[in-house]
Amino acid sequence: MSSETSDPTGTAAPHGPLRVGLIGYGLAGSVFHAPLIAATDGLRLDTVSTSDPERQAQARAEHPQVRTVDTPQAVLDRAADLDLIVLASPNKTHVPLATAVLEAGLPVVVDKPLAATAAEAEKLAALAEERGLLLSVFQNRRWDNDFRTVRRLIEDGTLGDIQRFESRFERWRPQPKGGWRESGDPAELGGLLYDLGSHLVDQALTLFGPVVSVYAESDIRRPGAEADDDTFLALTHASGVRSHLWVSATAAMLGPRFRVLGSRAGYVKHGLDPQEAALREGLRPGTEGAGWGVEPESRWGSLGAGASPRAGGGDPVPTLPGDYPAYYAAIARALHEGGRPPVTATEAAAALRVLEAAKLSATEGRTVRIEAQA
Question: What local confidence, expressed as pLDDT, does residue 104 receive?
Fold first, then answer.
């Protein structure tokens, strides 16, 4: 490894761009991680691991300077020539691969969810701290345009004291696509609770802090589906805020992405951040000028009190630009200069405690308490 450890949560590497190994080139690796790494000053995509020959060819076509290998072990075998490894592999591989990367002496970024349980996440965090290496979780939805806007409205007091936070990732996909993401095998960590639910819980914790109780309803509704595809969570935060979160593949009519109700005003926003669609279409940060992550005025949310946005009530609120590139820019900064990563393993463990409680609540039909962490 070319860089020298100088901080328990970051690695100082003052000379040249950091060479990045990427394990996995499916949706997460090809659409999110590789393009964002390649667009980040101070990072260079060096090696991609995938066993699929077509994905190897795709990686070389999209990133002509990259080398491709067949296995994660082949990336680990190049540890001396790399400065960071990113895991965009299936969920069940996250813990063993992250452990292997840290034991090889390299910092690691792991796609969400970091692990199946908070205990596993905390064990990884302890290993990273022991080795003096960065461990971060890719929670890109903190940099969604709508979430950034909600956060600003809360922090500047526009909404007053927040009473209820409603957040949805709803889709209409009546036919399962198959694959490990929809597998009923517990080892695969499939289903929407751990997939999109990881994002919604992380956002709620980021805004309102620790959760003290969780109630959840989780269903498998589509014929042939094996994992949850329609799930609801009700969180009570220690601050008193209540978060209501929906993840669904069976929503024939989509609700608002956000509805945030405060003592002064409320904010309602429909639609999705445009960055994922742009990345899927092959657009890249830096090639769109000032337009990256920007949405048209017709898609702005509404702010008001006692008004219905659908009936023309409320005032339009300009949506802040989405900024997925900020995640890897912060990773590069932490590795070059030292310091905390943009998302920590401890934060990931807190979200996993909520997800575990939600799974238990849905199974047993009761509200589950979460004990305060020391």
Answer: 98
